[in-house]
Structure formats: structure tokens, C-alpha cells
Write a structure and sequence with these properties.
alpha/beta; 3-stranded parallel β-sheet; 6-stranded parallel β-sheet
């Protein structure tokens, strides 16, 4: 028998890293184990994997939540169509003002995130993308605005968008049906992700940890989908209930499970850009630091106007809604410095595999 580590537990973790794969039994063990030595090995292996790809750097992305209107009625989301939340929609000049302020603070990636808002037609959204890229051509622009047609994705790419985040939410069709109304389908979500990748975006998928109905089997399906799809970015965070949704009374996911899965994803995809999300920072006071130490390498401080942040409430008790952009940047830099990492505002593009080490 080939030896991978000092103990059988170490060997199981080393095998994940070597094979860039995980079997169902190993996943079940990692999610349930209380073996602190094994969990330390998992985090350490993941962290060293991230360090080899990106060094001791954590990339800051400037997040702008520009609309909370949404045509969908996802059962877990606080801005779902039937939510009683107060709606808002930023004007183009407000969005550009947020980008300008972020640029002055050093940010070189902006993430425009919103619900699936019919107001933002291709014409309007392409105009916005073009305006951002014309003013700040050295910046990367990420969109996270849900499902659109392939033609729409192509137009936005041609206008200058570089990246696109679209969580698949779950790779199990029955579980997807539990989380969404019948008019939404996993097949359509996967088709959108494939279109984005074919067009040439740096693409991100992901899921909630601890969502209602989630099991080891559905998580295994998620990890296998991610491994096979091979995205540039993966966003996972704990499910946190929002009181006005059908799942408002469900228990939240845990920081511990999220952190274990961050490490596993890092081992499956060594070069992936992997955020320590706001949800993780919401559910645990040191969540983002713990996420970085487990293999994550991206955080996304909020550049949205203070007046609207409380209205973009995907879940309850969302953290970091009251920190000004400069304050948030400085706070994150200090948090990262405390654990031996440098928070940088560079574009931080995905790194290709070792044989083509240049940045894309």
C-alpha cells in the first residue's frame, strides 16, 4: 500500500489532494469527524495548496449590490419576488460613483450583483458595463445577475464583462426542486453556466452549506459537479434563514461544515478563486479569517451606498453592513495581517495550470 501521510487519516486527505477527487465515504467522514488532528491536516493541506498557487495574498473585490428587484421566488432568498422587503434600484451614475470611490481606494475588481431585475435589459446593462470599462480599463468586472440568454451573456462579454458568478445552488435535481418553484430548473442553471464558460468568462458556481434538504449525497453531487465543470471561482457559504421566506424557521448551516468544505474544494481545484463569504463572517465572528486559513483566498467588501445595504437582505443579521468602504478595506487588511496574509486590491485573475503559469 502506498503511504500518503503519517496516519491513515492523513493518507485519506493526501489522496484527495493527489487525485483531485473525493469519494462519498471520505466526504461523509470529513463532515462528521471530531478528530482535530485530521481536521488540522485538512486545513493545513488546503492552505498550503492555495499558497503555492497565489502566495500569502488574499484578493479584495469591491461588491456593489445595485438592485434588489428579482423576478424569481426562490424559497430561501430574502429578496425573492414575493418578499415584503423595501425595493431599490441604483441609477447608473450611482453605480459609477461607487466604482470611482472604490478605484480611489485601490480596488481593481468590481462585482456588480443584483436580483434578476427586468429593468436591466441588455441595452441598459451593456451600457453600464461599457461605462465601467471605459473609465477604469485596468479593472476586472464581475457580474452576478442570474440566468439570462446565451445572447445576453455574449453581449455583456462583448461590452467588457470579464467574470460571471452564478451559483448552481445544488447539483441534485430533486434538491433543486425543494429549494425553488417549479418554473426554475437545475437543467437551465447548468446550461447557463456552460454558456458562460463557452463564451470565455471566468465563471463561478457554488452552493449554500446546510440548506434545507441537503445531505451528504447532495453535497457529494455538488463536489463532483464542481470538479467536472472546473470553474474559475467557487462561492460557498452557510445557509442563513431569512424570516420572511418559507425557510425562515429552518436551522442555519454551520461555520464548521462550511470551512471543511472550503478545504475540500481547494484540494479538488488547487487554482480556484475561493471566497470567504460575508455569510461565513455573519455566522462566526472570525469566519472570514477561519475561511482563509482553510484555503479561501478572496473576500468581497461592500462598496454599495450605505443607504441601501440594509435593503439587500438575502438573509437575516447580515454582517458588515455599517462599515464605510475605506473602513471595511482597512479592517480586512488588519484581519488578514493578523493571520499572516496580505489583503491586496489587485485584479487577482485566475491562474492557469502550471504549464501555462501566466495570469489570464
Amino acid at each position: 500500500m502506498e503511504v500518503y501521510g503519517k496516519t491513515p487519516q492523513d493518507a485519506r486527505i493526501a489522496r484527495i489532494a493527489e487525485e483531485r477527487n473525493i469519494d462519498r465515504d471520505t466526504l461523509r467522514w470529513l463532515l462528521a469527524t471530531e478528530d482535530e488532528d485530521a481536521l488540522f491536516c485538512l486545513r493545513k493541506t488546503a492552505r498550503e495548496t492555495a499558497d503555492r498557487a497565489y502566495g500569502k495574498r488574499v484578493f479584495l473585490r469591491g461588491l456593489i449590490e445595485f438592485t434588489n428587484y428579482c423576478r424569481n421566488d426562490c424559497y430561501y432568498c430574502g429578496i425573492r419576488r414575493s418578499s415584503p422587503c423595501e425595493r431599490y434600484r441604483l441609477k447608473e451614475e450611482q453605480i459609477l460613483s461607487c466604482c470611482g470611490a472604490g478605484y480611489e481606494l485601490g480596488f481593481r475588481t468590481f462585482v456588480l450583483q443584483g436580483g434578476e431585475d427586468a429593468y436591466f435589459t441588455d441595452e441598459r446593462l451593456c451600457g453600464l458595463v461599457s461605462a465601467v470599462k471605459e473609465r477604469w480599463p485596468d479593472c476586472a468586472l464581475t457580474l452576478s445577475v442570474g440566468e439570462r440568454s446565451r445572447e445576453s451573456y455574449q453581449a455583456l462579454f462583448d461590452a467588457g464583462a470579464d467574470r460571471y458568478l452564478l451559483r448552481h445552488e445544488t447539483a441534485d435535481a430533486a434538491h433543486y426542486g425543494l429549494l425553488h418553484p417549479a418554473e426554475q430548473s437545475l437543467a437551465e442553471r447548468k446550461a447557463c453556466l456552460l454558456h458562460l464558460k463557452e463564451i470565455g468568462y471566468q465563471v463561478g458556481c457554488g452552493f449554500m452549506v446546510g440548506s434545507p434538504g441537503q445531505t451528504v449525497d447532495t453535497l457529494y453531487a455538488d463536489l463532483q459537479f464542481i470538479r467536472q465543470f472546473n470553474p474559475h471561482m467557487v462561492g460557498i457559504g452557510p445557509f442563513i434563514p431569512q424570516k420572511d421566506t418559507p425557510f425562515g424557521g429552518e436551522p442555519a448551516g454551520t461555520a464548521e461544515a462550511t470551512i471543511r468544505l472550503l478545504s475540500v474544494i481547494r484540494l479538488l481545484l488547487p487554482k480556484v478563486l475561493l471566497p470567504a463569504t460575508t455569510a461565513l463572517g455573519t455566522i462566526h465572528p472570525k469566519g472570514r479569517q477561519r475561511g482563509i486559513r482553510a484555503g479561501a483566498n478572496v473576500v468581497m467588501p461592500n462598496l454599495s451606498p450605505m443607504a441601501v445595504r440594509e435593503k439587500y437582505r438575502l438573509y437575516d443579521n447580515k454582517a458588515y453592513t455599517d462599515a464605510e468602504a475605506a473602513e471595511c478595506r482597512d479592517m480586512l487588511r488588519e484581519e488578514m495581517r493578523e493571520i499572516g496574509y496580505e489583503a491586496v486590491c489587485a485584479r487577482g485573475d485566475y491562474r492557469k495550470e502550471p504549464e501555462t503559469e501566466e495570469m489570464i
